[in-house]
Design a protein that fits this description.
The protein contains 29 helices and 27 strands. It is α/β, with parallel strands linked by helices. The strands form six sheets. Strands 11, 12, 13, 14, 15, 16, 17 and 18 form an eight-stranded mixed β-sheet that branches. Helix 6 packs parallel to helix 7, helix 12 runs antiparallel to helix 13 and helix 15 runs parallel beside helix 23.
Amino acid sequence: MTTIGNPVLESGEGAFARWLESELPRLPGAEDELFHRLWVQGLLRFSDTNAAIDEIDRTNARILTAAYRVRCTSMLVLPDARVHRPALLFATLLLRDWWDHRAGRRDPNPVLYFGSSVGIRDQLASVRIGGRGWKLSSVFQQSHTQRGAISAVPNGEAPMGGLPMVITVYSPSDAANILEECCPPWIAIDCADAYRLQWLDPLIERAEQHCVPVFAWSQNGLGYRGRLHTSPVNIQWPLICTWDDTPVTGLEDLLFRPTRSCAIDPLVMNGQGVDAYESGIVQSLHILSQLRAHGRLAEDAVAATWALVRKLQNISVPFPLHESEAPNFWGFGTVSSLKGAAERFATATRTSDPELASALSRAVAAADSSVEYLQQNDPPLWTALGSFCIEPPPEGIRRLVVFGSRAQMDVFLFALLARYGITQDDLSTLDIFVTDLTDLHRSGFPPEIANSDVRPLYVGVPSLNASAKVVDLLRHCKYIDFLIYTHQLSSLERRSDDWNQKLGLDAEAFQKSVTNLSGQHLIGTVPSPRALSGIASASRVDVLNARNRSAFRAHSQLQLSPVSEISNLFSDDDEDSGLDTVTLPGADTGQPRESPSDVLCDSAIAVDFESGWTALFAPNEKLNVITTGGTGQQKTEERVVAAVRPNDRVLLITGQRRQSLYDLIVGRVHRHPAFEMHLALIRRWQDDLVAAYDRWKAYGARNIDELLRQMVEKGSKLTSSFTLRTWLWRQTLCPDAPDDLRRIAEVLDMRFVAENYRRISRAADRLRNLHRSLALRLSHWLQNGQRDIDAAAAVVDADLGLTFNDFRDSLLVLKVVNLNIVAGPFLRSRLGIVEKRNS
């Protein structure tokens, strides 16, 4: 590679910024007429204004333009979640393709756009080019990909002549195969803020084999990490903190601003009973950190014991209440069931791996000493959180208690109500608010404190999975307190280091990327990154009195190796690991379950499908079997796996464990602004009902039959208390009759539901109608052998702009070849994944 121009001899942040300012405008494509008009003259706008466009957008546009010109795969990690940034990046690529091929090309060039949820159409619809009426969003309606065919679909609009066709693909079952069929000149990928994108790395590998450039971006540095982050162009912007509103004075200030940081304050619990409770956990962790599992049974056995220890680390309510209430929440197992599962796996490994079985038995025995403590005493987290909940924060500060999962938060709030009669409204009068990480990531800070100085108190240490959602706290808060045990301090330190590495400026990668595009080397030293978050000196906090604190500078009792600590922090059984926490029809919430069978199953069914697809399912898991009705119309029918037979045709949804169309719908639209409120209303009604019923039941001799009687007295047509149980078990979105919502709100004193029952009912109807529409389009698609372009392009929801094609790439229609019962035990959380064997 040659060096162009005079070498830069300076070192330091200023020299690096000046080198960038010199080289970026000279990148390939960044000097021509199109770029000058769009980005220098400002003709490219978002929502009819260029106020939101800044130096970050212009720099990204230059980098992607150059990468397009030299056909160089690129990955940009954006510094914030502003919606205009991905839209402008994609618009720049589309317009660059149009400009470079504006002469001599007759047919639009098909481009693949991969994403995990819909939204880019609406974003592109907000992009304007000067005063012209061109609609860039029309590119999505010009094309449709069918396995084995690409066809134009008329849309009634007249787009810019020569704009490339865009084939949208969301969470595909086989992304590499789609690339083979479509032969695109380039690929755009919006990783959004996703943590796991299982289809992405195989797609990148296939694109590299075919020399197809990929242009990707992410809006979460703690999200997806994989093959794209080793691309020749890999730009990682430093996180932009919303509270840092100092005007940016240049590229150097943007990249190296010293005030942009978040202090991580560990609050290490101290006092009555903490050491006695923690000692059993530490002993168990020490044993587990030395283990290496090989094979499915061994991996499940170790994972089951890790799950027990994580439960003991996170339990934050009195033990008897936890054991009685935990089964009411999906995926939130009891300590007893997790312990029973761990013991069962330890026994099951005695024959195949006696040494592992012995170690697991010792780990369970050590953890059992902490369980025995819980049977006689309250958990330290409960005592400490109680202290924080009665102690107002400093003046002018709002405290936000953040739990790692929705279920953990709900059980804590119920315990607070049952033990002390304290409600969330009572807490808010003390400027204390409670949320869970998933809800915070999805909906932002509670409206009451959105514009306040918030100091979060995170309960425990986030898992690797949960860390992708912690970015919202790091982005919006100057300080974050973490309430932890002594042994968790080293884990929090590692987590903070990881956040710094992934959210700070990677100046070396930035320099290499620009050099790969321009040929100009930086002669000098690349500046070191600045920390975006840092561990402050830890404090010991008395669990009985949150004000009583002292300095704590000792290292953790337990120093785990990075590999072992990953096993500790990574949580396959995170309660809120899904896209949304709305419980939808078809969820196996059922009646309360308290046995180890909730965690494991004695056997599984191995199902082999055609084309090399395979999966292990629990026998009572449900699949969508394709059947033919009396009129010859094909439809799907849910059957337990044990009832499926060879030669049955099954509709599989890849990328999700539960084979539910409702889950597929939520996965596509949960981030759509027009649908987010509907999901929030349903979630709020379901949560309020469970809490209100428990509160109502606590006063007098009240039960589900008494609730039915009072509902009927108010005019309800319900005849069975079982219907009410399905509401409490979250097996229905909401009552079919809106007035039944009002009636139960009146009986149980649910103020929010009483005031918004019509809106909640409309939201549920909206989701039901979307499900019916998808089911109808699915039936038509199946009827026509999955090759009907009109059926695939059929509109599922006009308001959201959804077509069946937006769901189709996650669907597989496969014939069952063989079924075998495989002896267990198996962890249920590790079953249900549909995979394709390597050919």
